[in-house]
Amino acid sequence: MKSAIAVRPQRSIRFRGRSLLAFVLTPALPITRWIAELDDWCKNSPDFFVGRPIILDLAGASLSSSGIFRLLAILRNRGIRVIGLDGVEAGGLDPALPPVLKGGRSGDEAIAPGSADAATNFAAAPQRPESTSLLLESPIRSGQSVIFPYGDVTVLGSVSSGAEVVAGGSIHIYGALRGRALAGSMGNGRASIFCSRNEAELVSIDGYYRTAEEMDASLRSRPTQCWLQDRIMMLAALD
Amino acid sequence: MANMAKVLVVTSGKGGVGKTTSTAALGAALAQAGQKVAVIDFDVGLRNLDLVMGAERRVVFDLVNVVQGVAKLSQALIRDKRLDTLWLLPASQTRDKDALTEEGIAAIIKEMRPNYDWVICDSPAGIERGATLAMRFADIAVIVTNPEVSSVRDSDRIIGLLDSKTEKAEKGQRVEKHVLITRYDPQRAARGEMLNIEDVLEILSTPLLGIIPESEEVLRASNIGSPVTLSNATSAPARAYLDAARRLKGDDVPMHIPTDRKGLFDKLFGRRAA
């Protein structure tokens, strides 16, 4: 699982990386017997795979492009949609096939098939980083950049014009925000920005942003909160 | 054990705000108060301090010569003709900042410390090599700022560098920082055409050393090659610099903005008479 992010707040197109958990199915030879086993399993947990991202690991079953197409059709009939292939070389495969994925890591938690809480397990499976925060007691000067991808950042002083604070979580500024604050930088739309005096050049949450020019003039120099609602940057005075 | 000089850097980030004028005026003011002072021009390639101090016709060796071992420090230092406790180490005009090395500057500062009360480094504008070397060994910094947004932001940037790139900062200590506001015009500030003092200090969150009023005396002084505290010691900018120098020495001097302007009544009267 890779967590890459490229936020370009000045542009209107957003490029972001996101890591998520996918199921990996590993067909074995002979394929007909593997499909029979899969059907047996699905009888116990109907609809288990529906709507879930599935990756097909073909390392144990050497199949040609047409063989893979046939297998995908069989799986599709059972409600299993394959988003990518693993264990095969991309070269020589039909380009219409799902892409071959690289750099995968196995999930940390095994999911008990058929068990009642399999679905909740799935939701909890991506390991949450331990909640951390960063406290900065001196002003952030022009030209300085504080990048803290692991959680919230609290600044006791001001953030100067030309300075920036980038946080994976929320940003709290007890002085004036005159520079940039970019919260939720690792793809957290629930992050917020709070400052006791809003003179910001730019605020951004999860890649969505608003420049000083786009802010309501009535918010200028006031205590302000910024959050994301339906992918729209919201700003409101706190006083 | 001889006393150890305080190393003071006069810096700003932005050019043209009055670093060199302030270096000369503060250096002279401290020397006028009986302190032994050396001023060093770090603006290699664009030297000016020698002109402002009226020593340009006596330059033989310079900072780069000393850094490179071509000349001894004592050969390059020029003694002021008016104040015998004031010395100048000029910059080279024909070289650039790459001719300076950190080791060379460290050696010069180390050699000067026991022999002076103050070593004042006149920083070039910018945040590159010349500016970072000028602040590198500073104990105290005077950040020269005009009451104007771009100057204030550049000063803020410089304060960030003083807190991270100096030898003191790297040892976990703090460079003592003071803001010197220059070219201040109370009338224009009152009309909102300039940032007011409170705004500047709030943005920089750094204590104030003094406020130097805008005055033609400053230009006149630099044209005749004399620090303004020597050319006209009773002028408003000279009094402001003399006060600022006393504050640097640790004296408690109330803050006010000296002015040359006469009262409204005098002005009306004067105009009528003219």
Can you describe what's shown?
The complex is a heterodimer of chains A (239) and B (274). By secondary structure, chain A is α/β, with parallel strands linked by helices. Chain A has two domains: 20-124, Alpha-Beta Plaits (2-Layer Sandwich), CATH 3.30.70.260; 132-237, Pectate Lyase C-like, CATH 2.160.20. Chain A contains three helices and 16 strands. Chain A has helices spanning 31-44, 65-77, 118-124, and strands at residues 5-6, 15-16, 23-25, 54-57, 82-86, 132-136, 145-148, 151-155, 164-167, 171-177, 180-183, 193-198, 202-205, 208-211, 224-229, 232-237. Chain A has a six-stranded mixed sheet, with no helix packed on it. A five-stranded mixed sheet of chain A has the order 7-9-11-13-14, with no helix packed on it. The longest helix of chain A is centred in the first third of the chain and has 14 residues, at 31-44. Residues 1-9 and 107-125 of chain A have low confidence and may be disordered. With 274 residues, chain B is of the alpha/beta class. Chain B has one domain: P-loop containing nucleotide triphosphate hydrolases (Rossmann fold), CATH 3.40.50.300. Chain B is built from 14 helices and eight strands. In chain B, a hairpin with a 6-residue loop joins strand 3 and strand 4 (86-89). In chain B, helix 1 crosses helix 13 (236-248). Classes of the chains: A alpha/beta (239), B alpha/beta (274). The interface between A and B is medium-sized, with 14 and 13 residues.
